[in-house]
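Researcher: Let's do a round of design. I'm pasting the structure tokens now; please hold your answer until I've finished.
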């Protein structure tokens, strides 16, 4: 290498990334019904995982956990805000804020039961 030239760093980083990117080269094929496949895909989606990642984790005995709908986090933020400020708010505002929080929790609860929601008891 000529004096003063800088060696490229990216090939080393790229080789490292590739090493971990595709270590999985063996496929496992299983037969399931259409309904079973839909349930597994739905469960994987609720956990924020691909079907392969979901089944791999379950097969290796790792814990998988469904994620909550965004509405739950919004309701929680509203509830904590109300908790922090309720003494300084007028009674009508507190009442309206409680109604709003309850509405958000109900929206979140119903989002769970929707086909695209975060949880579906039929797969458990």
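Researcher: That's everything. Go ahead.
Model: Designed sequence:
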């Amino acid at each position: 290498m000529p004096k003063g030239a800088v060696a490229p760093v990216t090939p080393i980083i790229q080789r490292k990334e590739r090493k971990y990117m595709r270590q999985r080269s063996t496929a496992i094929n299983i037969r399931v019904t259409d309904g079973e496949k839909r349930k597994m895909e739905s469960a994987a989606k609720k956990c924020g995982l691909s079907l392969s990642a979901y089944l791999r984790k379950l097969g290796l005995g790792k814990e998988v956990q469904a994620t909550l709908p965004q509405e739950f986090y919004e309701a929680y933020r509203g509830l904590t805000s109300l908790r922090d400020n309720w003494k300084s708010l007028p009674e009508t505002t507190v009442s309206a804020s409680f109604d709003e929080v309850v509405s958000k929790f109900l929206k979140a609860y119903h989002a769970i039961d929707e086909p695209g929601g975060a949880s579906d008891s039929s797969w458990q």
